[in-house]
Write a structure and sequence with these properties.
With 287 residues, the protein is α/β, with parallel strands linked by helices. It is 36% helix and 15% strand. It has 2 domains: 137 residues, Rossmann fold (3-Layer(aba) Sandwich), CATH 3.40.50.11930; 120 residues, Rossmann fold (3-Layer(aba) Sandwich), CATH 3.40.50. Helix 2 packs across helix 3 and helix 3 runs parallel beside helix 4. The longest helix has 15 residues. The chain is globular and about 60 Å long.
Length: 287
């Protein structure tokens, strides 16, 4: 089978930030299961030539190389629906949605144009079906287990967080720091915080006594905050890390190893649990 992956080659389309999540967790694993895999970096081509030219080049690439399967990772409005419809005449298309829970209308719109779309919501197939869409594949988050590994290296950080800035994430971290707990942060948008390439990020996971997983980076929906399952949970688990996160009721169904030290909690009990799991601080403030 010949597969075309339509996704950014570099993180956030920025070569200086290293290869993207899609490169490590889609492109490399696909090379092991498909006869041939190619990557179409739509972000770079669109930046250089514009949206319409990028879409036409994508269609020409599919026609010229006779791909059997085209996996696209939509972000906003980069793809032209009519072009996707045309690609469907030449190959099976899959629209891969990471966070369809918070962009429901967006995902349902594209379900009319792709051969299949994915959902990371364990109830997603049922929800799509009620809305009249039956071309949905349940695809929970995973990771490249050859990249995210446990390392026997010294612990350098009490608590760490790797991810983009969001006011709600900032609020959580400030409350934890108010309790006298040291938290180290990396990611886009934070003041005085660096962006980590993949190797450094895996090292940080392993060097931290506790890794925070604060799911919300975009949506202000409480329902999203309390129900989403983010890929970082899987990547932290395969790196052998203890992590603190918001309760996810279905996680045990899709994690193979059955990790037991993964407490989930409200903001106040989150800090109490941080102290319980081996940190040398005591909570000084109530929330």
């Amino acid at each position: 089978m010949k597969v075309l992956l339509v996704a950014p080659q570099y993180a956030y389309g920025d070569k200086s930030k290293g290869f993207s999540y899609e490169h490590y967790n889609f492109f490399l694993p696909l090379q092991k299961v498909a006869d041939a895999v190619a990557l179409f970096d739509f972000m770079e081509i669109m930046r250089s030539h514009g949206r319409e030219a990028m879409n036409k080049r994508m269609l020409d690439t599919v026609k010229r190389n006779e791909f059997h399967l085209v996996i696209l990772v939509p972000q906003t409005d980069q793809f032209i629906p009519e072009i996707i419809d045309d690609i469907n005449r030449h190959a099976i298309t899959v629209g891969y949605f990471f966070d369809d829970m918070w962009r429901i209308n967006y995902a349902r719109f594209w379900a009319e144009h792709f051969t299949y779309v994915t959902t990371s919501d364990i109830n997603g197939i049922k929800k799509f079906s009620k809305a009249g869409y039956n071309n949905v594949i349940y695809s929970p988050f995973a990771c490249n287990v050859e990249v995210y590994v446990k390392k026997n290296i010294p612990k350098l950080y009490d608590v760490s967080f790797v991810g983009e800035y969001h006011p709600l994430r900032d609020w959580y971290i400030k409350q934890i720091r108010r309790a006298g707990i040291s938290v180290k942060v990396w990611g886009n948008g934070w003041e005085q915080a660096n962006f980590l390439d993949l190797d450094d990020m895996v090292n940080v996971f392993n060097q931290s006594r506790i890794n925070l997983n604060l799911s919300n980076s975009i949506s202000w929906s409480l329902r999203y905050l309390c129900s989403s399952f983010k890929g970082i949970k899987v990547r932290l688990s395969y790196s052998g890390c203890l992590r603190i996160h918001v309760k996810i009721s279905f996680e045990c169904r899709i994690t193979k190893k059955g990790y037991g030290n993964e407490p989930s909690m409200s903001s106040a009990s989150k800090i109490r649990q941080l102290n319980y799991f081996g940190l040398r601080y005591e909570t000084q403030h109530s929330l």
